[in-house]
Amino acid sequence: MSEVSANMQVACKVEAEPLLDCTPLPDANPMASLDNTQCEAGWSKQRFCGNVYCYKEVKISTNYQDFDHSVTHDWCKLSYPHNGARLASVHCVEEHYYIQSLTAESIIGLHVPENLQNNITFDISSFTWTDGSPVDFVGWNRFSKQRVSTENKQEPLFPASPVFGKQKPSYVAYNRRDDGSSGWTNIDYGYHRAICKTKATPKP
To answer: How many beta carbons lie within 10 A of that of residue 86, not counting itself?
Structure first.
């Protein structure tokens, strides 16, 4: 084998490992279809990620527009205790695009639990879904025309993130900025609107 000189450029290759294992969701149901399931009136029925779900945009009552009521106790669960609704979680790109089509600056279920919020070094692994499902899809700033960080990364803002203007990070994710194309953001927009999700039920 010939010697490699000091000024020679070489290319190396390694096998990449995924950040998160994409395991099948526990409630995946290949037999469920839009024809054999139903949602309550006022909910939108969609098939995503191996099952059929119902979605609804809900305004959060003025007296409950705080992290405790809106996120920790899950506004969707408080509003619809009879049908198992939770703040929406997202698990595949098709569902992500649908959530993007709904009203901007609506909270979804991705959040930093209260016991981690005083840790100024919290990172992306601190975020979890209120419904307990795995964090197996990432939609931060996806395809955004206007980055909120000086770093060109698909990630939330952190306490030490360099940001434009006086925007500050929140401990909950919103479906998108009101710019027509961005992905999830945790800029603090307040707790005015939520996107709820529940599993569709079989038709009788």
So the answer is: 22
Is 76 exposed, middle or buried (CB count within 10 Å of its CB: 0-12, 13-18, 19+)? buried
b/e code 135-152 from CB counts within 10 Å (16+ = b): bbebbbbbebeeebbeee
Whether the per-residue pLDDT at 126 is higher than 70: the answer is: yes
Domain range for 164 is 37-202
Q: What's the CA gap between 33 and 64, in Å, rounded? A: 36
61 in any annotated domain: yes
Q: Are the C-beta atoms of 82 and 169 separated by less than 8 Å? A: no
Domain membership of residue 26 (yes or no) is: no
pTM: 0.79
Question: In whole angstroms, what is the distance from residue 21 CA to residue 186 CA?
Answer: 24
Per-residue pLDDT of 153-182, as tens digits, reads: 567 777 666 654 556 778 899 998 876 667
pLDDT tens digits along 21-52: 445 566 677 777 889 999 999 999 999 988 99
182, part of any domain: yes
The CATH number linked to 154 is: 3.10.100.10
Structure tokens at 4: 């490699």
Give the total number of structural domains in the chain.
1
Q: Is residue 4 one of the residues assigned to a domain?
A: no
